[in-house]
Write a structure and sequence with these properties.
This protein has about 325 residues and is of the alpha/beta class. It folds into 2 domains: about 210 residues, Purple Acid Phosphatase, chain A, domain 2, CATH 3.60.21; about 100 residues, Beta Barrel (OB fold (Dihydrolipoamide Acetyltransferase, E2P)). The two termini are about 40 Å apart. The model has no long low-confidence stretch (mean pLDDT about 85).
Length: about 325
Amino acid sequence: MSLFVMADLHLSSNGAKSMEVFGSRWIDYMEKIRKGWNAVVTEEDTVIIPGDVSWGLRAEDAVEDFLFLESLPGKKLIGKGNHDFWWSTRSKLMALWAKHGIESIDLLYNNAHRFDDCIVCGTRGWFLEEEKQLTVGEVDFTKIQNREAQRLKLSLDAARALRSRNVSCSIVFITSYPNFVLESFEVQPYRFLLKPAKTEQIHELMTGFVAQHRLLAPLMIQQDGCQITIESKNILYLEASGKNCIIRTADDTYTSSKTLAQVHALLPQHCFYRTHKSYVVNLYSIRSFDKESVTLINGEVARIGRATQADFRRDSAQFVKDFYVKV
């Protein structure tokens, strides 16, 4: 399953307020959206649409646009934009969608949603600087800011509740409210981006997230004709065996055709430590150690190389300081 984001669709199925008036690049824009969407999104994927979904003035006016989205693959999560005048209460929208057989759309509003190991939450953004708030007519900007800040807090509370059920979930927090940076860290986001976020920032974030996520992914090994999944947290140590690598858990022993170095590179580097040319140990699995060896929680012993002894004492002490809680 993949997670996509696409904002500012500005749909107008009835042509009442087509975006084509804004230039040639908008000609047949809904068909362009359809083709691009169908090219990359599958039924198992989710697409977040964070605002400006339809030009309809009432929810009933936007039904054709909702049906357009319903015809596209995947689940859709809709957030409220400043041009979504059709927005109504959740109960009224859900009833309208049910009436028209719309089942793939849900709201991202005062709540949070979990997808595999990701949690998504958020609210409508707003400029904090008055000179950038180019809204027509008299607008109480302070009221809008306070209202959206409260909705953001509700969304964070929902994310916090979801996070409490699965602390391994990752959260990327994007907002225009800098005062929420400290509160956001209560749900341990992977990164905090302050809008407007630059394309390079988002690219760097996603590249780093994918790289980190890959290191946390379980190993898949073939043993006796079966595909076996091994969680990295369950691995006590690795041991070189010629050109192969022995993977030892508390309950089983597996042999990989990869070398010790190759398997080590697939594991979280902060806790898998090469103590010897023939051993890599999980620092979380150490019961005790002396100058020449490490005793693991199952009683087995791994060697510490002579050239590694000083570095291991220093690095293991730092690991305990960084990742253990003293009681």
